[in-house]
C-alpha cells in the first residue's frame, strides 16, 4: 500500500506537526509509519512532559493519554527513570519544587530500587502523585524480573495509578500475576499485591489456602497473607478450614515443621474471647468479641531448607493510615 501524503512528510515537519498538535497521541496511533518516524527521545520527552508533569484542562482526556503513554513499548523502567531524573534533578526533589518554592524535605536522588524508602506526607507529595490512570498490563504479570518489580513498586508509591478493573484481561492478568509470585516464592511481589488494594481485593481464606497448598507454604508469604487477611476482616471462626487442617495433620505426620507451625498460627487466629469488651456504637454500647492474632515469634524455628520466616514492616498500611497517597 502506498504511503499517504502526511506519511511522506520529512521527519522535521512531521515532528513539528506532532508537537504543535498537543502532542496529539492520535497521530502516531494512526499509522505505524508515522509512529516509527516519531520514535525518538525528543518526542518521548515532550509527550511525557506534557501529560505527566502538569494538570491539563480535561482530566478525562489527560488520564486517557497517561494510560496510553504507560502502555507504550518505549515506556520502559529505564526510560522512566531517565525521564524522572531529567525532569526533577534541577529542583532537587521529587515534589517538583525547589526549597525556595516550598520544598522543606528534599527527596533526592529518587530511590528507584525501593521506592518505599522515600517518605512522603500529605504536605509533601511527589509531583507524580497526580498521575491518575491505568497501570499498564505489562507490569501486572510474571515473569517477575527485578526491573518490573521496581517499576511497579515505584508507580504504586508515587502515583495514583490503578488496575483497569473494567478490563477482563487486566483483571485476569493481575490475579494470575499474584498467583505466579506465590508459586515463585517471590515475597516482594506478594507483599505488593497483599498490601495494595489498587492491585486487587484483600486476600481471603482461598488465597491463604493457595499459598499453603499450591505454594508450598513459604512461611514468610503465608504469614504476610494471613496477617493481611486478618487486617481486612477474616477473624475468629472465619479461619476454620478442613483442607488447611488436613494439610497440617499430614505435614506433622511427615515430620515437616511447617505443619506444626501453621497449626499454631491457625489456632492463634481462631481464638475468640468474649463477647467481653464493650464497644461504643453511636451512643449505644454493645458486647464485642476480641479476636486472636498471630504472634510473630511463637512456634518459630530456624531456617529449614531456606524457609526462614521474614516479617517486614507494613509500610503501605502506614501510608494508608495517614491518609497518604
Ligand atoms: Zn520536596
Structure description:
Helices cover 47% and strands 6% of the residues. The relative contact order is 0.07. It contains 14 helices and two strands, in the order H-H-H-H-H-H-H-H-H-H-H-H-H-E-E-H. A hairpin with a 2-residue loop joins strand 1 and strand 2. The protein is elongated and about 75 Å long. The longest helix is centred in the middle third of the chain and has 16 residues, at 168-183. The chain has a two-stranded antiparallel sheet with strand order 1-2. Helix 4 runs antiparallel to helix 5, helix 10 runs antiparallel to helix 11 and helix 12 (242-254) packs antiparallel against helix 13. It folds into three domains: 1-75, no CATH class; 78-185, no CATH class; 202-313, no CATH class. By secondary structure, it is mainly α. It starts with 10 loop residues before the first helix and ends with a helix. Residues 319-325 have low confidence and may be disordered. The site of zinc ion has 8 residues, from loops.
Topology:
Layout: H1 11-20, H2 26-30, H3 32-37, H4 41-52, H5 59-71, H6 77-88, H7 146-158, H8 168-183, H9 187-195, H10 205-214, H11 219-231, H12 242-254, H13 257-270, E1 272-281, E2 284-291, H14 315-321
Antiparallel strand pairs: 1-2
Helix pairs in contact: 4-5, 8-9, 9-11, 10-11, 12-13
Bound molecules: zinc ion.
